[in-house]
UniProtKB/TrEMBL annotation:
Its EC number is 2.5.1.97. Pfam families: NeuB, SAF. One of its GO terms (molecular function) is transferase activity. InterPro entries: AFP_Neu5c_C_sf (IPR036732), Aldolase_TIM (IPR013785), PseI-like (IPR051690), PseI/NeuA/B-like_N (IPR013132), Pseudaminic_synth_PseI (IPR020030), SAF (IPR013974), SAF_AFP_Neu5Ac (IPR006190), SAF_PseI/NeuA/NeuB (IPR057736). It comes from Leptospira bouyouniensis. Keywords: Transferase. This is Pseudaminic acid synthase. It comes from the Bacteria. Residues 288-346 form the AFP-like domain. The keyword Phosphoprotein does not apply. Gene3D superfamilies: Aldolase class I (3.20.20.70), Antifreeze-like/N-acetylneuraminic acid synthase C-terminal domain (3.90.1210.10). The gene is pseI.
Length: 347
């Protein structure tokens, strides 16, 4: 398995661990194990420390006071300190994922994180929405020439274009963009997945979805619009708590996403307005005209003796007006499929 996405392949499902390990390496490995059992293609972690993301200050703009925020009442520093994945865990997580047959990669949040992940031979990189305006970081990641996935939450078209140009400026064409709404959780009506095909046409790259809505409906729907990658936060149990648990999928939901997104992809097929080959055997169960009351030779067919019913061995229902009012050429028992020789004598 590798980081190659295409509309000719089933959707590539990424389970985002984020801070749902709750500062337990044992739990982190269980999340990897569970994600693998769900059938995901990859699991993603995050590589930062509170000090690489912000400064230790707990007032003003460094304090989350929004009453609607999941993280209200805490400072950015304390939030990131609680959510970060210790760097000394990374090797164990990468190796365990490899053992389970699942790709593992990460979101680096500064240059030191990129260098560290390179030392682990990370197979790909993800740029988070909050970093999609950090062009030096994007160029640093793109320079590895490895696949790079960029979430586009909060970005203007111009900012997305700058990020795309930053990747391509170093000769990296292994770019995938993810439509993303950076609210936690996001609402379906603010997700706007109709943007996916427009983004593909505009930026000439694969496009997927980083989905923060509840459930799997939005993610499955995105497949019909051409999403080739779907990222969802993942936890063992929302009831266990954690910084992202509220909008994370549990194992049974992730399994359903893997199955239903593939079904949605398989259903796309091609533009085919005619009857399919697979339907040929079902034709006999369509409606057709049948004699539903014994008719004697010379008797006139009426709406009481001929009806449109199933199965489909008789002539099509559209000819009923021709049949009714005509005379039977021979005795016809109830349950006989109507054929033209009944009225014109041609057997």
């Amino acid at each position: 398995m590798n980081f190659e996405f295409s509309r000719n392949k089933k959707p590539f499902i990424i389970a985002e661990m984020s801070g749902n390990h709750n500062q337990s390496l044992e739990r982190a490995l269980k999340i990897v194990d569970s994600a693998a059992n769900c059938g995901v293609a990859a699991i993603k972690i995050q590589t930062y420390t509170a000090d690489t993301l912000t400064i230790d200050k707990s007032d003003g703009e460094f304090f989350i006071s929004d009453p609607k925020s999941l993280w209200k009442g805490t400072s950015l520093y304390e939030l990131y300190k609680k959510a970060y994945t210790p760097w000394e865990w990374h090797k164990a997580i990468f190796e365990y994922a490899n053992k389970k047959g699942v790709l593992c990669f990460s979101s680096p949040f500064d240059f030191s994180a990129v260098d560290f992940l390179e030392s682990l031979n990370a197979p790909a990189y993800k740029i988070a929405s909050f970093e999609n305006n950090d062009l030096p970081l994007i160029r640093k990641v793109a320079a590895t020439k490895k696949p790079i996935i960029i979430s586009t939450g909060m970005a203007t078209i111009a900012e997305v274009a700058e990020a795309v140009d930053a990747v391509r400026s170093v000769g990296n064409e292994k770019l995938t963009l993810l439509k993303c709404t950076s609210t936690y959780p996001a609402s379906p009506e603010n997700t706007n997945i109709l943007s996916i095909p427009a983004m593909r046409d505009m930026f000439r790259c694969e496009v997927g979805l980083s989905d923060h809505t509840m459930g799997i409906g939005v993610a499955v729907a995105s497949v019909a619009l051409g999403a080739t990658v779907i990222e969802k936060h993942f936890t063992l149990r929302r009831a266990d708590g954690g910084v992202d648990s509220t909008f994370s999928l549990e194992p049974e939901e992730m399994k359903a996403l893997v199955v239903e997104s593939e079904r949605a992809w398989l259903s796309l097929g091609s533009v085919k307005l005619e009857r399919s080959e697979a339907e040929e055997k079902s034709i006999i169960f369509k409606r057709s005209l049948y004699v539903v009351k014994d008719v004697k030779k010379g008797e006139t067919f009426t709406s009481e003796s001929v009806r449109s019913i199933r199965p489909g061995y008789g002539i099509p229902p559209k000819y009923i007006d021709i049949i009714i009012g005509s005379k039977a050429m021979f005795d016809i028992p109830r349950g006989t499929a109507v054929s033209w020789d009944m009225i014109n004598g041609k057997k």
